[in-house]
Automatic annotation (TrEMBL):
The lineage of its organism: Eukaryota, Viridiplantae, Streptophyta, Embryophyta, Tracheophyta. This is Major facilitator superfamily (MFS) profile domain-containing protein. It comes from Salix dunnii. The keyword Disulfide bond does not apply. It holds the Pfam family Sugar_tr. The chain crosses the membrane at residues 15-35, 76-95, 107-126, 132-153, 165-183, 195-216, 278-302, 314-336, 343-367, 379-403, 415-436, 442-465.
Length: 492
């Protein structure tokens, strides 16, 4: 295959079929995450599901004079959606330890096993607790998968393609969400057990991930750090597709030696010099959630019903936003290593700010508590939602995962990334848990709430986020943190 055009003189590489297979198989971890995100919104809009597990919510839904913004507000219903994220939050720290001690590959294997059990238990649930236990198992899968997969992709990618390769994770997240929306669209017509099919189908990608975790290689960095230099070097030769990998090998070896001396990565992470990537990693993930993306991803069908679509039309609108999400992520794959991370994030802030504000304004002006929007107004809301999702998909979506996975030095990489993952999960949980109540209480103002956060995160990127495109992963400290006007004050 063709050698990459922008080969760093020191780190030559060629694309090989095997490495591409490894990227794709690992990225199935993203598919699982996406499927879990996408499936709950549609399932919680299905009458059969509500009658079985949440009869009071179903009752409320039937009585048509109820308040538009409040018909789905129910803590148990939200617990169904959000329990997964709490489990993922807790397990990401265990996953970090597993990643360091046993490697990225076995951690991905464990994730796939959790996913398989989670799909089995939730789809066969007889009562609400089984349902929640199923979600918790899936959450453990997400914790392990989201910790190991982005790290795996960033470590295995050649430097000049690192952004694009890592974004395969997010690309698969969006495909998983879209696939889940399609499944829900079909199963909503299968009475009375369509919801079981929706939840059970998660087993299919889980199986792919399971097989993938056996086929993929371990990353050279993990092998070398765990003392397996020979295997590390031969893996590096295999994945780079060239014989001369000495320079890169030496660099990984040096980074691994430092990493090996650090016995307590979490303690190391609390040092002043670890703060820059830690603060950036946590904030990027928190901000990613405060864009309001998951208010749309989880509750798209519910949201579209709120603005006046019928059940079927609202699922269809969710499918449309799903397509926009997938296609726009491709933009990021193509541009992230060319224009860099900052430009994508800043451009998106402007587009997201405008769309969230406009959605809020339309709902405020035209949606009364019991009426509904006209067809034209509702269509306009769908267009604005698409514009919002589009910009998120080429920026905060993928880069929320990419940047924290590439900015920590090796000795704190798995621990630091666990903080990024768990911050994502905490805020995903908070939004999943709170959104329907917030919608009920704040009404259209909830969209202004997100808009204000988008403004803040734009300023954060402008002043505090360094560019990391085309910097070797093990040279971030020298080339990025020690050069930045603010962050260099933290470095020794
Ligand atoms: C986020 C998810 C979100 C998804 C949307 C991911 O990067 O972490 O919370 O639902 O993107 O595509």
């Amino acid at each position: 295959m063709r050698s990459s055009e922008k080969d760093d003189q020191d780190f030559p590489s060629k694309l090989t079929v095997y490495v591409v297979i490894c990227w794709i198989l690992a990225a199935f971890g993203g598919f699982m995450f996406g499927y879990d995100i996408g499936i709950s919104g549609g399932v919680t809009a299905m009458d059969d599901f509500l009658i079985k597990f949440f009869p009071t919510v179903h009752e409320r839904k039937l009585h048509a004079t109820e308040n538009n913004y409040c018909k789905y507000d129910n803590q148990y219903l939200q617990l169904f959606t959000s329990s997964l994220y709490l489990a993922a939050l807790v397990s990401s720290f265990g996953a970090s330890k597993a990643c360091t001690k046993y490697g990225r590959k076995p951690t991905i294997l464990v994730a796939s096993v959790f996913f398989l059990f989670g799909a089995a238990v939730s789809s066969s649930a007889q009562n609400i607790w089984m349902l929640i236990i199923g979600r918790i198992l899936l959450g453990f899968g997400v914790g392990f998968g989201n910790e190991a997969v982005p790290l795996f992709l960033s470590e295995i990618a050649p430097m000049e393609r690192r952004g694009a390769v890592n974004i395969l994770f997010q690309f698969f997240v969006t495909v998983g969400i879209f696939f889940a929306n399609l499944v829900n669209y079909g199963t909503s017509k299968m009475h009375p057990y369509g919801w079981r099919v929706s939840l059970g189908l998660a087993g299919v990608p889980a199986l792919f991930l399971f097989i993938g975790s056996i086929v993929i290689t371990e990353t050279p960095a993990s092998l070398i750090e765990r003392g397996n230099e020979t295997a590390g070097k031969s893996t590096l030769t295999k994945i780079r597709g060239v014989d001369n990998v000495n320079a890169e090998f030496e660099q990984i070896k040096a980074a691994s030696e430092i990493a090996r001396q650090v016995k307590h990565p979490f303690k190391e992470l609390m040092k002043r010099s670890s703060m820059p990537p830690l603060i950036i990693g946590i904030l990027l993930q928190v901000f990613q959630q405060l864009t309001g993306i998951n208010a749309i991803m989880f509750y798209a069908p519910v949201l579209f019903q709120t603005v006046g679509f019928k059940n079927d039309a609202s699922l269809l609108s969710a499918v449309i936003t799903g397509i926009v999400n997938v296609l726009s992520t491709l933009v990021s794959i193509f541009y992230v290593d060319k224009v860099g991370r900052r430009i994508l994030l800043l451009q998106a802030c402007v587009q997201m700010l405008i769309s969230q504000t406009a959605i809020g304004a339309i709902l405020l002006a035209f949606l009364t508590t019991t009426g509904s929007l006209t067809k034209l107004q509702a269509a306009f809301v769908v267009v604005l939602v698409c514009l919002f999702v589009m910009s998120f998909a080429w920026s905060w979506g993928p880069l929320g995962w990419l940047i924290p996975s590439e900015t920590f030095p090796q000795e704190t990489r798995t621990a630091g990334f666990a903080f990024a993952v768990s911050s994502n999960m905490l805020f995903t949980f908070l939004i999943a848990q709170a959104f329907l109540s917030m919608l009920c209480n704040m009404r259209a103002f909830i969209f202004f709430f997100f808009a204000v956060w988008i403004l803040k995160m734009g300023l954060f990127v402008y002043f505090l986020l360094p560019e990391t495109k085309n910097v070797p992963i093990d040279l971030m400290v020298e080339r990025v943190w020690k050069q930045h006007p603010v962050w260099k004050k933290f470095m020794d």
